């Protein structure tokens, strides 16, 4: 036998029944986004490398060491598997002049790629769901996005997440803070690690985001950007927090929250949990009013967030939250293969009315479909609520026997094979997967 081929390290198959949890979450998101009037956008997984270099920032973990970049073999173009989707959305919005008639509220779901050390909650192919509102300068839209995320946690039953907020102000405020920060860090240069020393002149703000435990104390005592904010930035922040307060959303100010990406200004936020170790950020976002201009579009304000699907699902699992699994309404039991053509026509008609039917399928050839007993076993294992028995007696009468597999009494009733529409509804019960 040939050598077995394995999936790429850090890239996972999502298999049933687990995939049902993903579909369930995605369904919740679609319905919620519709209620907030956010529309779906789908951009390519591969983008020009320059989009991320300019969009995310050259001196960031992502661009420095996490991107899957390659050269197009045919024309030599530098390409990258998207490590996040904000840059792609912004490119698409600019490319198609989508803000021509006013702001746009958008959302996406899909795989992202980062070359990180795989561990729980950190993968090389992972999935994000994100929401972006482009063309709106007002702080009320920052708040709307936070309320939307909060509503999602409520909808899926996620507990134990807290909201941390900060403001990164505007470029002039950041410049003043940057100078103070460089002075402070230079004074303590001996305590910096290599990465921090490298970033001292290029991107000192990012040093505050360090994960190195040895530098936490130093970073905690550093000058706070929040203290450099002027009246306008503070007013923007207050509009956000007033709305959150009025909606009963609790939050804390985290002056060290700078986020991994370069493009943010004003509001930044993260939803964090203590239950996933150092992969505790399940959702992060903020305002990025300068990004569109940076990638060559017409300047326009924007704000958004992205959540990590794996981390959200992991946290739900950690909490022991029950996520409903898909269960067929009925399992079709067919003892004699000769009647399959007729039976399958009946199943088609049932499914056309919306009933979820799993058909028994057996071995090929002489062994046929297996005994009634073994078929009933399969029916039980499928989790179906009803068995549809297409036995010889039933077929002779032009009927099917419907047996309940759930109530323990084995209640049963006979129904005509012709005109299933009249009784199909009795098989259906409410499920999230309809
Ligand atoms: P972290 O600090 O954990 O590396 P980040 O700041 O790099 O996160 P963002 O770029 O803000 O993360 O991405 C938004 C969300 O996507 C994160 O909050 C997280 O839930 C998820 N995420 C980011 N990187 C990964 C990864 N490698 N594997 C799984 N989920 C991830
Ligand atoms: Mg990261």
Describe this structure in words.
By secondary structure, this protein is an alpha+beta fold. It folds into 2 domains: 18-169 and 229-318, Bira Bifunctional Protein, Domain 2 (BirA Bifunctional Protein, domain 2, 2-Layer Sandwich); 330-433, Anticodon-binding domain (Rossmann fold). The chain is built from 14 helices and 16 strands. The chain has helices at residues 18-35, 49-56, 61-66, 86-95, 139-156, 171-187, 194-202, 216-220, 231-246, 291-294, 309-318, 340-352, 372-382, 392-397; strands spanning 39-40, 46-48, 69-71, 78-81, 104-113, 125-134, 162-167, 251-253, 265-272, 281-287, 302-308, 330-333, 357-359, 386-389, 399-404, 412-416. The radius of gyration is 28 Å and the shape is elongated. The protein binds adenosine-5'-triphosphate and magnesium ion. Adenosine-5'-triphosphate is lined by residues 84, 114, 116, 121-123, 126, 128, 260, 279, 281-284, 306-308, 310-311.
Topology summary:
Layout: H1 18-35, E1 39-40, E2 46-48, H2 49-56, H3 61-66, E3 69-71, E4 78-81, H4 86-95, E5 104-113, E6 125-134, H5 139-156, E7 162-167, H6 171-187, H7 194-202, H8 216-220, H9 231-246, E8 251-253, E9 265-272, E10 281-287, H10 291-294, E11 302-308, H11 309-318, E12 330-333, H12 340-352, E13 357-359, H13 372-382, E14 386-389, H14 392-397, E15 399-404, E16 412-416
Parallel strand pairs: 1-5, 7-8, 12-13, 12-14
Antiparallel strand pairs: 2-4, 3-4, 5-6, 6-11, 7-9, 9-10, 10-11, 14-15, 15-16
Helix pairs in contact: 1-5, 5-9
């Amino acid at each position: 036998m040939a050598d077995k081929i394995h999936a790429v390290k850090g890239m996972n198959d999502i298999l049933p029944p687990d995939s049902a949890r993903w579909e369930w979450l995605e369904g919740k998101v679609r319905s919620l986004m519709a209620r907030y009037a956010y529309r779906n956008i789908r951009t390519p997984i591969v983008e020009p490398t320059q989009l991320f270099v300019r969009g995310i920032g050259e001196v960031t973990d992502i661009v420095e060491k996490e991107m899957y970049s390659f050269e197009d073999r045919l024309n030599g173009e530098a390409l990258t598997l998207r490590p996040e989707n904000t840059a792609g959305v912004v490119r698409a919005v600019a490319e198609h002049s989508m803000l021509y008639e006013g702001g746009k509220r958008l959302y996406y779901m899909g795989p992202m790629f980062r070359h990180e050390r795989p561990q729980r909650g950190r993968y090389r192919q992972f999935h994000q769901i994100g929401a972006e509102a482009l063309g709106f300068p007002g702080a009320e839209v920052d708040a709307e996005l936070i309320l939307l995320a909060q509503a999602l946690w409520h909808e899926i039953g996620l507990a134990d997440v807290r909201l941390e907020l900060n403001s990164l102000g505007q470029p002039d405020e950041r410049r003043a803070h940057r100078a103070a920060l460089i002075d402070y860090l230079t004074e303590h240069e001996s305590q910096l690690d290599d990465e921090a020393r490298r970033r001292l002149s290029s991107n000192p703000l990012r040093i505050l985001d360090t994960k190195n435990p040895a530098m936490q104390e130093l970073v905690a005592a550093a000058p706070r950007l929040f203290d450099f904010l002027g009246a306008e930035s503070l007013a923007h922040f207050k509009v956000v927090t007033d709305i959150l307060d009025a909606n009963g959303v609790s939050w804390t100010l985290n002056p060290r929250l700078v986020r991994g990406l370069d493009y943010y200004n004003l509001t930044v936020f993260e939803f964090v949990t203590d239950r996933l170790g150092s992969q505790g950020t399940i959702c992060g976002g903020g305002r990025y009013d300068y990004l569109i201009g940076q990638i060559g579009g017409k300047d326009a304000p924007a704000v958004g967030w992205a959540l990590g699907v794996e981390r959200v699902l992991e946290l739900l699992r950690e909490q022991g939250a029950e996520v409903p699994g898909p269960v067929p309404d009925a399992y079709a039991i067919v003892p004699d293969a000769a009647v399959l053509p007729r039976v399958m026509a009946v199943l088609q008609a049932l499914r056309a009315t919306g009933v979820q039917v799993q058909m028994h399928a057996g071995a090929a050839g002489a062994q046929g479909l297996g005994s009634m007993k073994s078929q009933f076993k399969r029916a039980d294992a499928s989790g179906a609520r009803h068995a549809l028995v297409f036995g010889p007696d039933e077929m002779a009468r032009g009927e099917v026997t419907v047996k309940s597999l759930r109530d323990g009494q084995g209640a049963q009733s006979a129904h005509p094979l012709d005109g299933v529409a009249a009784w199909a509804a009795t098989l259906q019960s409410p499920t999230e997967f309809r």
